[in-house]
Design a protein that fits this description.
About 45% of the residues lie in helices and about 20% in strands. It is α/β, with parallel strands linked by helices. The protein has two domains: about 40-130 and about 255-325, D-Maltodextrin-Binding Protein, domain 2 (3-Layer(aba) Sandwich), CATH 3.40.190; about 130-230, D-Maltodextrin-Binding Protein, domain 2 (3-Layer(aba) Sandwich). Helix 6 links the parallel strand 6 and strand 7 (about 185-190). The longest helix has 25 residues, at about 1-25.
């Protein structure tokens, strides 16, 4: 009887061992991300600062992680088209998207966004930061931004300031400048950067607020004069250009940014892999130099840091929009 019991136990243990081996063989080893191409959805047309940043980053990620990262341009008001595209994809890290300072603006600018950038996306890392330049015609009498402020105070509403469309970060930067400097001027919105620049060259506006890289050609040629940059400290791309704060407008600080986000629910190890790669890529001297030529300060950070920046900028631009009485779109 004892011999039968021992034999029965041996058969049972052998069966369990066989089942265990079979079960472990049936479960494949977890794939190391990425194992196929990754789509980077960008809410702007090709050729601009954001697109250039995305393409430099995508190329370097492809080299570092061994799979192709490709940029897919999905321009549209408020980044709605790009965001919809990104959140409709699986939360597996094979579709990432760019959120920007403009995303923070859109939350308060639109009556109802079909997505919530804070809840529907999880941050990966910042990519780059850039200031706006306050630029006048070289033939104008304004040698400093202080000269412009003095003239605006002497004749309230008489001076014209050009930016791209109402609700853009440039446009809201001008609105913030109005209140921060306590001046009154007429804000003239244009459909595109080129239209605003032409108006400045022709003397139809006294000042334009836009990315330095957009206006750089005519600044270098001596047709335009940069008066100030919008950040709290001088930009690496324009170290000789005084800030608005240095020009006498206290507490003025506008720095635009772009960052990589993934759909909420993306595995933490994927976020970690991407963040680690971006930290190395954006710390590389060659990459930093390449982006600085476009006025962008390459800078990676923790997911938490850019997530908090998104939230704080939503609050900041909500206050500007409400104070300027800009109607919701």
């Amino acid at each position: 009887m004892k011999t039968f019991a021992r034999h029965h136990r041996r058969l049972l243990l052998a069966s369990l061992a066989f089942l265990f081996i079979g079960a472990t063989q049936a479960v494949p080893a977890q794939e190391k991300y990425p194992v196929r191409p990754v789509r980077f959805v960008v809410p702007f047309a090709a050729g601009g600062v954001a697109d250039t940043t995305a393409r430099v980053v995508a190329d370097k990620l492809s080299e570092k992680l061994g799979q192709r990262f490709y940029v897919e341009n999905q321009p549209g008001a408020g980044g709605i088209t790009a965001a919809r595209n990104a959140i409709s994809a699986p939360a597996d890290g094979y579709t990432v998207t760019m959120l920007t300072n403009g995303t923070a603006v859109s939350v308060s600018l639109f009556e109802k966004l079909p997505f919530d950038p804070v809840k529907d996306f999880t941050p990966v890392s910042s990519l780059g930061f850039f200031d706006f330049a306050f630029v006048t015609s070289a033939s104008s009498g304004f040698k400093t931004l202080g000269d412009f402020v003095a003239a605006a105070k002497a004749k309230p509403g008489a001076l014209n300031v050009g930016t791209i469309n109402v609700g853009s970060t440039q446009n809201l930067s001008a609105e913030l400048f109005k209140t921060s400097a306590n001046v009154d001027f007429t804000l003239v919105p244009f459909r595109g950067n080129h239209d605003a620049e032409v108006a400045l060259l022709q003397g139809n506006v006294s000042l334009v607020i836009d990315s330095y890289s957009v206006l750089q050609g005519n600044i270098v040629d001596g047709k335009l004069r940069a008066l100030a940059s919008s950040g709290a400290t001088r930009s690496e791309s324009t170290p000789d250009l005084a800030t608005v704060k240095e020009s006498g407008v206290a507490d003025y600080d506008v720095v635009s940014w772009n960052a990589m986000f993934a759909r909420t629910g993306t595995p933490p190890d994927v976020i970690k892999t991407l963040n680690s790669a971006l930290q190395e890529i954006l710390g590389d001297a060659e990459v930093r130099k390449k982006l600085l030529a476009f006025g962008v300060e390459a800078r990676a950070g923790t997911p938490e840091a850019i997530g908090e920046r998104l939230k704080s900028d939503i609050d900041k631009w909500r206050a500007v929009i409400e104070k300027a009485h800009i109607p919701k779109q």
